Design the sequence.
């Protein structure tokens, strides 16, 4: 079975450019999460969706970041305009469901390594 | 800001050694706890849940101390393949805000 799929695996871009990261969750999973990982700040939850609806985006650093989930099998995280401090590994994860009083294992994708010059 | 703290390490231990990591959390409303493992340049993967009564999975033992607000992970008979970064995860139900927080991880290096 395919796990969580992310593309691209590596992205190098220049400051000011738009960056779009893509994620395909595991089929049948209803919850999707976007994370950012850096050495300084560790793994940070940016936003998560339940049944394609954004539930909590309080982790999104600023308005330059936006995320969408138009259907159950696809999500994007967009940075516009990008800045050097956005350089990080961005992970997408999915789980069967995310409820306030229960937890299902999150399965992570391989990540996108973003470098903004 | 919710805080989940881990000693970053690295912990350098010989094969066969027993090693333990702690993870402290600041929010007493935290409800669920987990350990994830992350290999170098790979994604995190769930290692084990942490139950109130403590739980064991082979060479791995996880414990929760609510009074002192920390969880621990004990690895017995360390293998070279245990070398990785171990992340603790704290989940706060009914938080109304970002409900889950990862620690920055503790790096373990098992040496032959």
Sequence:
């Amino acid at each position: 079975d395919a796990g969580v799929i992310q593309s691209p695996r590596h992205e190098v871009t220049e400051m000011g450019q738009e960056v779009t990261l893509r994620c395909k969750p595991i089929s049948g999973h209803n919850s999707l999460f976007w994370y950012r990982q850096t050495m300084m700040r560790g793994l940070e939850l940016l936003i998560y969706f339940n049944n394609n609806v954004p539930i909590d985006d309080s982790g999104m650093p600023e308005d330059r970041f936006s995320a969408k989930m138009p259907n159950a099998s696809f999500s994007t995280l967009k940075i516009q305009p990008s800045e050097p401090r956005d350089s990080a590994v961005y992970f997408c994860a999915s789980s069967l469901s995310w409820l306030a009083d229960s937890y299902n294992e999150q399965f992570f994708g391989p990540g996108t390594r973003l470098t903004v010059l | 800001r919710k805080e989940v703290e881990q000693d970053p390490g690295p912990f350098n231990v010989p094969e066969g050694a027993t090693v333990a990591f702690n993870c402290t959390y600041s929010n007493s409303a935290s409800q669920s706890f987990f350990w994830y493992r992350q290999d170098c340049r790979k994604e995190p993967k769930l290692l084990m849940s942490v139950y109130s009564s403590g739980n064991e999975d082979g060479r791995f033992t996880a414990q929760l101390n609510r009074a002192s607000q920390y969880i621990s992970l004990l690895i017995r008979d360390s293998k070279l393949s245990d070398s990785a970064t171990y992340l603790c995860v704290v989940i706060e139900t009914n938080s109304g805000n970002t409900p889950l927080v990862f620690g920055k991880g503790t790096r373990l290096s098992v040496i032959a």
Notes: DSSP finds no helices and eleven strands in chain B. The two ends of chain B are 40 Å apart (CA to CA).
